[in-house]
Amino acid sequence: MGRLKRGLYIGRFQPFHNGHLEAIKYVLENIDELIIAIGSIQDSHEIKNPFTAGERHYMIQSALLEAEIPHDKFYIISIPDIDRNAVWLAHVRTLCPPFEIVYSNNPLVARLTKEYGETAQLSTIPFFNRMQYTATEVRRRILEGENWEDLVPPAVANIIKEINGIKRIRDIDASEGDLF
Ligand code: NAD
């Protein structure tokens, strides 16, 4: 057997939604193993970043196992932001197993991979139902009391309810004002 081909997929996952899950399924058709990196782990309890790194880890792992993605196909790793974009990819490398492909549609991640990727190449991901499958839309619907559960895997909906996430988002909004 040749060397394993490993990719990196980074996101804030605030929260993890069906678009993220479809992206991971798509990527896993093309590589052997995927590192799912939770970014901005220092942020939580803000209207745009309501969930902690631990809660996001719980959501992602539960959703992937619910989707019957074998556990030996993925790693979930937490990455804090740093102040210097130019050394960000090197920072990510110190926290992850080796990877050779970065999968992202985020313009800054794409730029930093192209400029500082060295041995890593960039690959974009098709957008899945981009109008609805966005974390902003999930948070907006939670806030407005609209149907948000269809936008996330069932495991994530259950976890958001288990950790009292709906009340947290509404309470943060009430104290911060509408920042969408
Ligand atoms: P995100 O959760 O918004 O998205 C994760 C990925 O999924 C992105 O590539 C996004 O385009 C893709 N995606 C979203 N919806 C999709 C859909 N419906 N179909 C298909 N793909 C979809 O996270 P993000 O904001 O892209 O995360 C980037 C992370 O990298 C952040 O935490 C950021 O802080 C971090 N970062 C940090 C530095 C630094 O510390 N200096 C520099 C660059 C990036």
What does it look like?
The chain has helices at residues 18-28, 53-66, 88-95, 107-116, 135-144, 154-162, 165-176, and strands at residues 6-11, 33-38, 74-78, 101-103, 121-123. By secondary structure, it is of the alpha/beta class. It has a single domain (6-176), classed as Rossmann fold. It has a five-stranded parallel β-sheet with strand order 3-2-1-4-5, sandwiched between helices. β4 (101-103), α4 and β5 form a beta-alpha-beta unit. Bound molecules: nicotinamide-adenine-dinucleotide. Nicotinamide-adenine-dinucleotide binds at residues 10-13, 19-20, 23, 39-40, 81-82, 85, 88, 104-106, 108-109, 112, 125, 127-130, 133-135.
Helix residue percentage: 40-55%
What is the CATH class name? Answer: Alpha Beta
How many distinct beta strands? 5
Structural class: alpha/beta
The CATH homologous superfamily: HUPs
Query: Which value, in Å, is the CA radius of gyration?
Result: 16 Å
- Indicate the overall shape: globular
Ligand set? nicotinamide-adenine-dinucleotide
In angstroms, what separates the terminal alpha carbons?
A: 49 Å
Low-confidence stretches: none
CATH architecture: 3-Layer(aba) Sandwich
Average per-residue pLDDT, rounded, comes to 95
Total domain count: 1
CATH fold-level assignment: Rossmann fold
Helix tally?
Answer: 7
Strand content: 5-15%
Instruction: List the helices and strands in order.
Output: EHEHEHEHEHHH
* Major sheet attributes: 5 strands, parallel
Strand order of the largest sheet: 3-2-1-4-5
